[in-house]
């Protein structure tokens, strides 16, 4: 399987990810009806994007994306905490190593170059 990336647009990647969540709207599909100017449910909410009539509410996902994202984050909290701690420790380790290097240089009394 090969992929060809034509352009890199963060918004496009976000919508591709939303398609994989199998959800529609924030709380449910009625968010699109209430908030979109055309009052139309997008085809990204369809159970089957190739064969979908968005006016038929049985053809669209009923769960909202907020609940699904919260469940995903809660299910992967250990991983998220590990990434946060690891990211916070990297500068601390760099600071400790630079201080020990400075201490080593000071103790070895290198000649100062003018």
Automatic annotation (TrEMBL):
Gene3D superfamilies: Tetraspanin (1.10.1450.10). It is a multi-pass membrane protein. One of its GO terms (cellular component) is membrane. Residues 1-27 form the signal peptide. Its main location: membrane. The chain crosses the membrane at residues 79-105. It comes from the Eukaryota. It is found in: Membrane. This is Uncharacterized protein. It comes from Diatraea saccharalis.
């Amino acid at each position: 399987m090969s992929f060809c990336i034509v352009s890199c647009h963060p918004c496009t990647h976000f919508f591709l990810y939303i398609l994989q969540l199998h959800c529609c709207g924030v709380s449910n599909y009625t968010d699109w009806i209430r908030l979109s100017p055309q009052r139309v449910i997008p085809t990204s909410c369809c159970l089957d994007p190739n064969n979908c009539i968005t006016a038929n509410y049985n053809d669209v996902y009923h769960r909202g994306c907020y609940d699904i994202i919260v469940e995903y984050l809660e299910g992967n909290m250990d991983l998220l905490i590990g990434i946060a701690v690891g990211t916070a420790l990297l500068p601390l380790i760099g600071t400790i190593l630079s201080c020990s290097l400075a201490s080593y240089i000071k103790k070895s009394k290198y000649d100062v170059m003018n």
